[in-house]
TrEMBL record, chains A, B:
InterPro entries: Homeodomain-like_sf (IPR009057), HTH-type_TetR-like_transc_reg (IPR050109), HTH_TetR (IPR001647), KstR2_TetR_C (IPR041490), Tet_transcr_reg_TetR-rel_C_sf (IPR036271)
Keyword presence, Methyltransferase: no
Organism: Kribbella flavida (strain DSM 17836 / JCM 10339 / NBRC 14399)
Domain HTH tetR-type: from-to ranges: 15-75
Keywords tagged on the record: DNA-binding
Compositionally skewed regions (Low complexity) per UniProt: 92-108
Protein name stated in the entry: Transcriptional regulator, TetR family
Annotation: DNA-binding region: 38-57
Disordered as annotated region, ranges: 82-108
Molecular-function GO term, any one: transcription cis-regulatory region binding
Amino acid sequence: MSAVTSPLVWEHVQPAAARRLLTGAIDAFAERGFQATTTRDIASRAGMSPAALYVHYPSKERLLFEISLYGHRAALEVLRDAGDPAPDDIPGDAAPESSSSASVTADRSPAERLRAMVSAFTAWHAEHHTIARVVQYELAALTPEHLAEVAAIRRAISAQLEQVLADGVDDGSFAVEDLPGTTLAVLSLSIDVARWYTPHRAKPEDLGTLYGDLALRMVQA
Amino acid sequence: MSAVTSPLVWEHVQPAAARRLLTGAIDAFAERGFQATTTRDIASRAGMSPAALYVHYPSKERLLFEISLYGHRAALEVLRDAGDPAPDDIPGDAAPESSSSASVTADRSPAERLRAMVSAFTAWHAEHHTIARVVQYELAALTPEHLAEVAAIRRAISAQLEQVLADGVDDGSFAVEDLPGTTLAVLSLSIDVARWYTPHRAKPEDLGTLYGDLALRMVQA
C-alpha cells in the first residue's frame, strides 16, 4: 500500500528543495511545536538560508498548511480506498448483460468495509505518527481560510466512515444509537494512535488488525 | 463528583499566587505550547513579575511537572473511584458474622465497573480538556526524573483498567484477545476526547455514557 510508505507521501512536492523544507518543518513542528519553531530552524534543517525558504513558501504558516493539506488528503485516500464497496469491480470486464448483478455480488458487506477502513486508517496513523501529530495538534495555528479548506477534508473523512456505519444500520448488521457520536469515536480511536505510537510497541499492520476488530465490535448488532 | 469540577483540581495549591501561576501556565501551554511559552508570559497572566514567579517555581519545567502530576493523579483518582468493586461496602456497618458474604454480594460486575470507569474517565477528559491536552502533548518537555514520576502514575492508570478487563475475562463475561492492546485502546478512546472536545459538541456526562457503552461492546463476550 504505497500511501502508507513515508517517503512517497511527499514525492509529488517539487523541486527537491521545497520537499526538504516541508520534511524539515514536520520534524521541527513535531519536536518544538509550531509557535516555537522559526523559519531559520526550518531552513537550516533543509541546509538552506532563511531567505531561500521564502522562494518556496511565503510563511511558516504556509508550510504548516501544506503539511496539513497533504496529511489530511492522504488519510482520506487511505480510508476511501479501504472502504471501496466493490474494489475488484472493473467496468467493461464483465459482460454487459450481467454487469449490474455482478457488481452487486462483488459488493463487500459493511462489516468487511468497516474493518478494512479502520485497519488501514489506524496503520496509517501509526506509520505516519509524526506527521499526524503535527496535523492534529496544530490546527489552531492555521489562518481561518486555510482551516476552512482543511475542515472540508475532515468532514469528508467523517462522511466516509459515517456512510459505512449507516449502510450497516440499513442492512441490519450494525446497531448504532448515536451515528455521529460513534463515527467520531471510531475515528478518534485510530487518530489517537499517533499520540502514543512508537515502533517498539507494535507493527502498524498488527495494530490495524486489532483496531479493525475493536471497531467492528463497537457497532455490530 | 468533585474531581470533575475544574476549580477544585487546584484548590490544594497554596498560596493563591502559586495557584494563579499554575492556571496561567496551563492556559499559556495550551495556547502556544510549552516551548513557545516564556516565564514572562506565565507571570503576566498571573499579574506578577517574572522574578515573583521564581519565588514559587524554580523553572518553567517545574510548572509543567506540577500540572502533569496533578492532572495524572486526578485522572487516576477518577478511574479508581469509578471502578471500585464495592463502593457501598462500609466496614463495621454489616454484622461481623455476615460481613464476608455481604461484601461479595455487594461487588459490582466487571461490566458495571468498566462502564462506570470509562464513563467517568471520558467525562473528566471532556471537562478538563485544556489540562489534559497539556498533560498528554507535552510529556517530552519533562526532565527524565519528572517523566519517570509521571510514567509511574500512567502505569497505575493502565493497571486499573487492565485489572477490570482481566476480571471480566476470568468470570467469562469478557472476551479479550490482546489484554494490553485493548487496555491501551480503551484508555486512548477516552483520552483523545481532550483533542477534539468543545462544550458545544456534547455534555461531558452524555459523552461518558456513550463511551462507557462503546467500551463495553469492545470487550463483551
